[in-house]
Automatic annotation (TrEMBL):
Residues 14-172 form the PucR-like N-terminal domain. InterPro entries: CdaR-like_regulators, PucR-like_N, PucR_C-HTH_dom, PucR_C-HTH_sf. Transmembrane segments: none annotated. The lineage of its organism: Bacteria, Bacillati, Actinomycetota, Actinomycetes, Streptosporangiales. Gene3D superfamilies: PucR C-terminal helix-turn-helix domain. Pfam families: HTH_30, PucR-like_N. This is PucR-like helix-turn-helix protein. Residues 328-384 form the PucR C-terminal helix-turn-helix domain. It comes from the Bacteria.
Length: 406
């Protein structure tokens, strides 16, 4: 049915169509509030994009109906594909079928109430016409739930998803037995590799996608409050490059490579790295490999003792002005790494060797002979690494240039 079927003039139908379009944000917001109040299992505070998915699903459903009613193009084929994909996503994330079906019963009720109110408020619209609008809303939303049911059922064909989720839960638990892993892996149709790694995931806030990319051979754990995946043979040829492409829709941290019974440890370190990346302490990459950041991760998770070590070893520079202090600390770290070879340090910092020699003399004046003690080299490197990570330079993008003054 179209608005032009309600015995309205073209101008009246156009006016009512614009009024319905204008009511869409308010109707959507009301429907989402009702869904969140009545079905708390769909509220996921740890994943703000989940609320965006819910709002988008409701808005698309009601909005496309309004377009049909107003005589526009509702892109029904695109709408069917969207809701079929949404059904698959909900199945993969472990949302019960009764829960998501209830969301559409709730949104249908809100849509019928608000749309029939809007149509009924227009002069010349009869009660019979209002009832027809309500019937059409019900029929239209039945088509949506049908598409979602199709996607939901397709994702569960042969219980493969169930078995793979069961396998992931087993792997990341504490102390799984190899024989249990092999049994569940056989049920899931997943060849057991020699090694695995667990990848901790966070959805990127700058990408709105119902189905973010994942490696085809991964065990998905999107149903968990903190999503993750298990990948086989993480050190295999091309795997690192492939992950950079496959996980492009996520912020992700790849845990250390472990045997099949030690996934819990890989996941712990991956989640620690992901937390540190969220704090901006591991750089600006979207994909982190814990093996590339082992020392910083270890140091940053020992924060209280590391602060004590920093205060103990590096306090002599506290009296210096900020630019001098930052440059000296970075120079000292490079000196410790390069055995105080001025030429090597100069190459790393893109400075003249004579400038480095001048800084080394300053360092020796400030710290004394302790900085050249091989027994303390690691302590100084650890303290410097921690301090330079947690208290960044005034202009961290600019390397120190030229001589400095105390």
């Amino acid at each position: 049915m179209r608005l032009t079927d309600l015995d309205l003039t073209e101008d009246q139908a156009a006016e009512l169509g614009e009024a319905l379009r204008g009511s869409l944000p308010e109707v959507t917001a009301e429907a989402v509030r009702e869904i969140e109040n009545q079905i708390p299992t769909l509220v996921r505070p740890h994943d703000p994009r989940y609320a965006a998915f819910l709002a988008q699903a409701v808005q698309w459903g009601i909005g496309r109906f309004i377009e049909l009613l107003a005589g526009g193009d509702a892109h029904l084929e695109e709408l069917h594909d969207f809701y079929r994909d949404l059904g698959e996503l909900l199945a993969e994330e472990g949302v019960a079928q009764d829960d998501w079906q209830a969301t559409f019963r709730i949104s249908t009720g809100v849509a019928i109430n608000r749309l029939t109110e809007a149509v009924g408020s227009h002069p010349g619209v009869t009660p019979t016409a209002i009832a027809r609008v309500a019937q059409d809303v019900l029929y239209y939303l039945e088509q949506i739930t049908g598409a979602m049911t199709e996607g939901y059922a397709g994702a569960r064909v042969g219980d493969t998803l169930h078995h793979r989720r069961k396998l992931l839960d087993l792997l990341i638990g504490e102390g799984p037995r190899p024989e249990d892993i092999h049994q569940v892996a056989a049920e899931a149709g997943w060849p057991v590799p020699r090694t695995i790694a667990v990848v901790a995931l966070r959805r990127r806030t700058d990408i709105v996608k119902l189905r973010p990319a994942l490696p085809a051979d991964a065990l998905p754990g999107l149903h968990l409050p903190d999503p993750c995946i298990v990948i086989p043979d993480p050190a295999g040829p091309g795997r690192r490059h492939g992950l950079a492409t496959e996980l492009r829709d996520w912020t992700a941290a790849v845990g250390p490579t472990v045997g099949i019974t030690d996934a819990a440890r890989s996941l712990r370190w991956a989640r620690r790295a992901l937390d540190l990346s969220a704090e901006g302490l591991l750089g600006g990459d979207r994909l982190f490999h814990t093996d590339d950041h082992t020392l910083p991760i270890v140091l940053l998770h020992g924060g209280e003792m590391m602060e004590h070590l920093v205060d103990t070893l590096l306090s002599p520079v506290d009296a210096l002005r900020t630019t001098t202090r930052d440059a000296l600390l970075e120079t000292l770290l490079r000196c410790l790494q390069c055995g105080f070879n001025a030429s090597d340090v100069a190459a790393r910092l893109r400075l003249h060797p004579q400038s480095i020699r001048y800084r080394i003399r300053q360092l020796e004046e400030v710290f004394g002979p302790a900085i050249r003690d091989p027994e303390r080299n690691f302590e100084y490197q650890a303290a410097l690494t921690y301090r330079l990570r947690t208290r960044p330079r005034t202009n961290p993008e600019d390397p120190p240039q030229g001589d400095i003054e105390t």
